């Protein structure tokens, strides 16, 4: 394991740690059947029937895969 040659100052330590912040996911708001749905952009979404059973995956209005 690597061992630092010199002690790292408090300001340098905090500056390094501040770069590791988690980002909030960027969500896209869409309205489906009168319901507002938030989803991740550029991802295939699951199309469900009225009972909530998943039917297939859809991307840009096209069927991509079966579930």
Detailed description of the structure:
- The protein is mainly beta and 67 residues long.
- 13% of the residues lie in helices and 37% in strands.
- It has one helix and five strands.
- The strands form two sheets. Strands 3-4-5 form a three-stranded antiparallel β-sheet, with no helix packed on it. A two-stranded antiparallel ribbon has the order 1-2.
- The model has no long low-confidence stretch (mean pLDDT 88).
Short account of what is shown:
With 67 residues, the protein is mainly beta. The protein has one helix at 10-18, and strands spanning 28-32, 35-39, 45-48, 54-59, 62-66.
- Spans of at least 5 consecutive residues whose pLDDT stays below 50 are none
Radius of gyration, taken over Cα atoms and rounded to an integer in Å: 22 Å
CA-CA gap between termini: 46 Å
Query: Strand-and-helix sequence, N→C?
Result: HEEEEE
Strand content: 35-45%
Helix content: 10-25%
Report the structural category: mainly beta
**Helical stretch tally:** 1
Largest sheet: 3 strands, antiparallel
| Strand arrangement, major sheet | 3-4-5
Give a quick set of tags describing it:
single chain, 67 residues, mainly beta, 3-stranded antiparallel sheet, two-stranded antiparallel ribbon, 5 strands, 13% helix, elongated
């Amino acid at each position: 394991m690597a061992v630092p040659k010199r002690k790292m100052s408090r300001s340098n330590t905090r500056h390094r740690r501040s770069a590791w912040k988690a980002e909030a996911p960027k969500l896209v708001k869409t309205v489906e059947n009168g319901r507002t749905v938030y989803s991740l952009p550029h991802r295939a979404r699951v199309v469900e029937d009225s009972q909530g059973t998943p039917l297939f995956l859809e991307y840009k209005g096209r069927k991509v895969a079966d579930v």
